[in-house]
Design goal:
There is one protein chain. The longest helix has 15 residues. The chain has 10 helices and 16 strands. It is of the alpha/beta class. The chain has a 16-stranded mixed beta sheet that branches. The radius of gyration is 24 Å and the shape is elongated. This is F-box domain-containing protein. One of its GO terms (biological process) is innate immune response. Pfam families: FTH (PF01827).
Amino acid sequence: MDLLTELPTIALDLILKNVDWKDIISLRKVNFTIRNYMEDVVPTANLTSISITVASDNISCEFSDTKVEYRKHLDGCLVVCSKIPLILRNLDFVTACRADLAVIFRHSRIEELNLYFTYFTDEMFSVKDENLDPIIDRFLWNFNDIKVTTLHIESLGAEHVLRILPHLEPKTLETLRIWYQKYHYRRREEIPGFETDEIVELDQWKQAKTLSLRPYRLNCGLMHFGHVSGGFIYVDRVNPKDLFYLKENFIKNPEFDYFHIEYDQFDNYNELLSVFGPSDDRDDLQRAEWYYNDRKFRFVIENFNDISFHMVSR
């Protein structure tokens, strides 16, 4: 590998333009000369997706057809990204992973970034790993200007979302999906709250076109969703005047497609009628529909716990 470091700069640049991210991550492990050289000359690339799973003793990164694992090891960090695992001595797995991801984030625009945290040690999501939180805090710390189109994050609350969201480039973020990790095992009465006070003030939130938070109970007003073109949320209660505000904003939005709201309580159905007027289509109070803009826009309420807005022509 000494021959590689002796190549002219032009030759090294040409080589790097034709390697994939798996090779780049491997080359960064060769020596300090190669690693430092690659910090600035890695070619800009667009990645379809990166899926990162963080556990208390390892971090797994998958992108394209490549998977790289960073595992806790007695001598440091065990990196598995090829047939021959590599031990990075005196370097912990979080630091090693962050260093590689920093290069990828700096030189790439990522279509979809998926973040998963292995909070539980059993398949029934009942035994929590108490060692995970400090690992997540270290892993998410101080990434900057990550160019991501879609962020999908599965967590147990707003805390870890707030650690990564401010570091995404607002101009490139279009879709934000925040899911409760126990989503598939929850009962309606077990749906947790989600503190949105800080998140709704972020530029990343305000500029996202699609917002889906499921199945968290949100503590913010519906006015914080008037700018979106699509999404899904769960709230404790809805107010007819807030729904009217959404309707007015959605109709004016040329990119609007759909927005879905699940809720527990409706404040006042008579007030809804006074705000929206008589429904255009009604089925024994189980379903009511209102149409606007020559029936191109539809507002639907079903079973008193399900509301949707649709641009019918799409």
